[in-house]
C-alpha cells in the first residue's frame, strides 16, 4: 500500500508550501474580472485583495478536472494505491465528490470525510493526515482520528461587507443593504453542527462587538482547553480587529496556542475584504 495525502486550496497553504510538506495540492479556480487564476499557484492573497479593494468581480470554481486527471494518472503509473483526500466542506463545494469519482475511475482507493469547514481546520487536517501516513498508520485509522478532531472543532466568521453574503445567497440584497445601513454584523458559524453550511449564529451592531461576543462564545465551550486545542485567527486586511480578537482570547483562554494568518483567496471571494475568521481546533 502506498498512500498520498491530497488537499485543495481552501486550507491556508499555497502549492509550494503544501508540496514542501509532502502533500499534493489541487488549486480551486478564481475568476477576477473574467480572467481565471489557479488559487495558490499563480494567484496570491495580496493580488486578490488589491483587486477586491478596487471592486473587481470575483467568482470561484472547482479545481480543473484535467489537472486532477493528470495527478491521478501519475499515481497509477508510480504505484500509489490509496489517497487520503482533505477538502473544504461538501456544503461549500462539490470538490470532494468530483475528486473522489475521478480517483475511483483511476482505480485508486479514496479515503475522505466531510471536515464541515475549511481554512485552518483544513490545513491542520492535511498536516495531521500526512504525519499519520509517515507513521505508517492505515487509511481507516487516519480517517477515524481526523473525524474525532472534526467533531470537536468549530469556526466563526464575521464579515464587514454584507454584499458578498448577498451575492452568495446567504442574504437578500435588500437585507444586505438594510444591514449595512444599520451597521449589523452577523456572526456566522461553520461546524459539524451546521453540516458545513455557513449559518447565521447571531447579529450584532458593530464589528468590535461581534468579535467580542464571538470570543466569549468560543471561551464558553466546555471542551475548550489550552492543552488540547489551538485557535487560528484569520483576516483580510483587518489586522486591528484580528489583534483585538487575539487579545480577547488570550485573556479568556490563558495559555492557548493562537496562530494568525490571512484568509485564503478562494474563501475571501465569498466573505469580502475586512473579514475575520476564528476557528478552534481539537489537536488529537
From TrEMBL:
Which Gene3D superfamilies does UniProt cross-reference here?
A: 3.30.1180.10, 3.40.50.10170
| Keywords noted in UniProt | Lipid-binding
Q: Which GO terms describe its molecular function?
A: lipid binding
Q: What is this protein called?
A: DegV family protein
Q: Which organism is it from?
A: Absicoccus porci
Lineage, opening ranks: Bacteria, Bacillati, Bacillota, Erysipelotrichia, Erysipelotrichales
Amino acid at each position: 500500500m502506498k498512500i498520498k495525502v491530497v488537499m485543495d486550496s481552501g486550507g491556508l497553504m499555497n502549492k509550494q508550501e503544501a508540496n514542501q510538506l509532502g502533500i499534493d495540492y489541487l488549486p480551486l479556480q478564481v475568476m477576477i474580472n473574467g480572467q481565471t487564476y489557479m488559487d495558490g499557484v499563480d494567484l496570491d492573497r495580496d493580488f486578490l485583495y488589491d483587486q477586491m479593494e478596487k471592486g473587481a468581480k470575483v467568482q470561484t470554481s472547482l479545481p480543473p478536472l484535467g489537472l486532477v486527471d493528470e495527478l491521478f494518472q501519475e499515481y497509477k503509473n508510480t504505484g500509489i494505491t490509496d489517497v487520503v483526500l482533505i477538502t473544504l466542506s461538501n456544503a461549500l463545494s462539490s470538490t470532494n465528490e468530483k475528486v473522489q469519482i475521478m480517483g475511483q475511475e483511476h482505480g485508486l482507493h479514496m479515503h475522505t470525510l466531510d471536515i464541515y469547514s475549511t481554512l485552518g481546520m483544513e490545513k491542520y487536517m492535511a498536516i495531521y493526515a500526512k504525519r499519520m501516513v509517515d507513521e505508517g498508520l492505515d487509511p481507516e485509522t487516519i480517517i477515524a482520528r481526523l473525524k474525532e478532531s472534526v467533531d470537536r472543532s468549530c469556526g466563526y466568521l464575521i464579515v464587514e461587507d454584507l454584499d458578498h453574503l448577498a451575492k452568495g445567497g446567504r442574504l437578500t440584497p435588500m437585507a444586505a443593504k438594510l444591514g449595512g445601513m444599520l451597521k449589523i454584523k452577523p456572526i456566522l458559524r461553520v461546524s459539524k453542527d451546521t453540516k458545513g453550511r455557513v449559518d447565521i449564529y447571531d447579529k450584532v451592531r458593530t464589528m468590535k462587538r461581534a468579535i467580542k461576543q464571538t470570543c466569549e462564545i468560543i471561551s464558553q465551550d466546555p471542551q475548550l482547553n489550552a492543552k488540547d486545542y489551538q485557535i487560528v485567527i484569520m483576516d483580510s486586511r483587518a489586522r486591528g480587529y484580528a489583534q483585538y480578537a487575539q487579545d480577547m482570547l488570550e485573556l479568556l483562554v490563558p495559555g492557548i496556542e493562537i496562530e494568525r494568518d490571512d484568509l485564503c483567496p478562494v474563501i475571501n471571494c465569498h466573505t469580502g475584504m475586512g473579514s475575520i475568521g476564528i476557528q478552534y481546533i481539537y489537536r488529537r
